[in-house]
Automatic annotation (TrEMBL):
Residues 44-75 form a coiled coil. InterPro entries: DUF7806. Keywords: Coiled coil. It holds the Pfam family DUF7806. This is DUF7806 domain-containing protein. The keyword Coiled coil applies. It comes from Miscanthus lutarioriparius.
Length: 264
C-alpha cells in the first residue's frame, strides 16, 4: 500500500511540475506576444503619422504643380498674343512696303516726265530732270527695308540706263549713285572712261568689290569680280565667276550679296 502511495505521489509531483512549467512558458509567451503587439502598434502608429505627413506634402506639391501649370499656360497665352501682335505689325508693314514698291516699279520714265516741270530751252536732256525728281522723291521717303531698297535700286538703275550716255546724264548718274550707296550700303561709282555704262561697287569693310556693265543689246548686266577681300572663305562660287543677269534679277543679286556680307 505504501508502495502504491509512493508511486501516485511521484506521478502527482511530476504532473504538478510539468503544469507549473507549462504555465510559466504560457505566461512568458503571453508577455512576448504582448510586447510584440505593443511594438507593432507603435510601428503602425508611426506609419500612419508618416503617411499623413506624406499626404500633406503631396497635396502641397500638387497645389504647386497646378499653380506652375496655370502660370505656364498664362505665359504661353501672353507670348502667343505678343507673337500674333508682332506678326500683324509685320504683315501691315510688309503690305505697306509692297504697295510702295509696286508704286515705284509701276512708274515709267514717261509718267515721271509728264508730271515734271517743263525744262528751259537751254537744256537738251529733259530726262535729267526726271532723274533729279526721282532722287528728291527717294531722299524724302522714309527708311525702307532691304527688299524695298533693292526694288528702288533696280528701278533707279533702269531709269539711269534709259537716260543715255551724254555729259549731263553721267553727271546725273554720279548724283544718283550717291543715293544708291545709301540704299545698298556699298560704295558705288560710275566709270567715265568706258563708252558703255559701267559702275564699280565696293564694300569697304570687307574689301569686296566688283564691276557691273550694262549690255544694251541683250538688256543684261555683266558682273565681273575685282576682289573678294575678307569674303574669300565664305564667298559663293558664282561670286568668283563672270556672270550675266537681267534687270529683273537686280533685287535678288544685291539681296544675296548683302546676305553673304552680313555673315562675314
Amino acid at each position: 500500500m505504501e508502495r502504491l502511495d509512493s508511486k501516485f505521489h511521484g506521478k502527482y509531483t511530476a504532473l504538478k511540475k510539468r503544469k507549473l512549467l507549462d504555465e510559466g512558458m504560457e505566461r512568458k509567451r503571453e508577455a512576448e506576444l504582448k510586447e510584440l503587439y505593443d511594438a507593432m502598434k507603435d510601428w503602425i502608429s508611426d506609419l500612419n503619422k508618416n503617411n499623413a505627413e506624406l499626404n500633406e506634402k503631396l497635396v502641397e506639391k500638387q497645389d504647386e504643380l497646378e499653380k506652375t501649370r496655370q502660370e505656364f499656360l498664362e505665359d504661353i497665352h501672353t507670348r502667343d498674343s505678343e507673337i500674333l501682335r508682332l506678326k500683324q505689325l509685320l504683315d501691315e508693314k510688309a503690305e505697306k512696303s509692297n504697295s510702295k514698291a509696286t508704286g515705284l516699279l509701276g512708274r515709267t520714265p514717261e509718267s515721271i516726265l509728264e508730271n515734271s516741270t517743263p525744262m528751259s530751252p537751254k537744256r537738251k536732256t529733259p530726262l535729267s530732270h526726271g532723274k533729279v525728281k526721282r532722287v528728291q522723291l527717294s531722299e524724302n521717303a522714309p527708311h525702307s527695308s532691304p527688299t524695298e531698297e533693292s526694288q528702288e535700286l533696280e528701278c533707279s538703275i533702269r531709269h539711269m540706263c534709259i537716260s543715255g550716255n551724254g555729259t549731263n546724264e553721267i553727271r546725273g548718274a554720279h548724283m544718283l549713285c550717291s543715293l544708291l550707296q545709301s540704299l545698298v550700303r556699298m560704295k558705288i561709282s560710275v566709270n567715265d572712261e568706258t563708252e558703255i555704262f559701267s559702275i564699280s561697287v565696293s564694300h569697304e569693310a570687307s574689301g569686296y568689290s566688283f564691276t557691273l556693265t550694262w549690255l544694251e543689246k541683250s538688256d543684261e548686266w555683266s558682273y565681273k569680280l575685282s576682289s573678294l577681300g575678307t569674303l574669300e572663305r565664305i564667298a559663293a562660287d558664282w561670286m568668283r565667276q563672270d556672270i550675266r543677269f537681267s534687270m529683273n534679277m537686280c533685287r535678288m543679286f544685291f539681296e544675296r550679296i548683302s546676305s553673304i556680307i552680313s555673315k562675314g
